[in-house]
């Protein structure tokens, strides 16, 4: 069946909608199909959406970009140094000429080495500039002083630094004596003293209990008391590297503390 041709006098769908919803203009007036919204409606729209956009933009700009920086307790290294020029310090403490950071990084095997910042100094270009007067801040430009370090050694040293420090109190032992101690008991205490020193601990030899004050003297003479101290010191000398690290505190034949310690590098 042959389709009927569209009659030219019949309006299109768009024309029909315009005729329905748009008022017929007065003669001489221009036709506008945009519907004008009330001013109050436009103001509300502008206030709400403009503030939303501004907040969104402000939120984005106020947040710094996230970067893969090393922990703050570690030395600044590689691109974290964030300057154009550096000076490398050699193992013998001599300084290399000023060079670009990128050039220094390109010159090393980055799978094996880091460049870390170990300090800073006045830039060589301004080294001849007169120093400021005493008390005035030094405003001369400075340059980072850096060092090339092995990654493995660096990480081991950082891990060692992060280990909790040993409490010195836990490494100190006390041995209590009295001035009239028998030789048998003294030999036993001296064995304990040497055992602690061999373990790398400090030892306090205490004459007289702190709670009870002075111990009974039992006719111990000044000479006998010093002979006892001499015997203790001689026993300490048999432990290599041990010594009396602090002046004894107290009174001979009374309350007294003698301080001994082992060699620093003992386990």
Structure description:
- There is one protein chain.
- The chain is an alpha/beta fold.
- Helices cover 31% and strands 19% of the residues.
- The protein contains six helices and eight strands, in the order H-H-E-E-H-E-E-H-E-H-E-H-E-E.
- Strands 2-1-4-3 form a four-stranded mixed beta sheet.
- The longest helix has 24 residues, at 39-62.
Overall outline: elongated
Biggest sheet architecture? 4 strands, mixed
Low-confidence stretches: 39-68, 209-217
Rg over alpha carbons? 43 Å
Task: Please write out the topology.
Layout: H1 13-21, H2 39-62, E1 85-88, E2 99-100, H3 101-106, E3 113-122, E4 142-150, H4 151-162, E5 172-177, H5 183-198, E6 202-207, H6 222-237, E7 243-250, E8 256-261
Parallel strand pairs: 1-4, 5-6
Antiparallel strand pairs: 1-2, 3-4, 6-8, 7-8
Descriptive labels:
8 strands, 267 residues, single chain, 4-stranded mixed beta sheet
Question: Nutshell version of this structure?
Answer:
This protein has 267 residues and is α/β, with parallel strands linked by helices. It has helices at 13-21, 39-62, 101-106, 151-162, 183-198, 222-237, and strands at residues 85-88, 99-100, 113-122, 142-150, 172-177, 202-207, 243-250, 256-261.
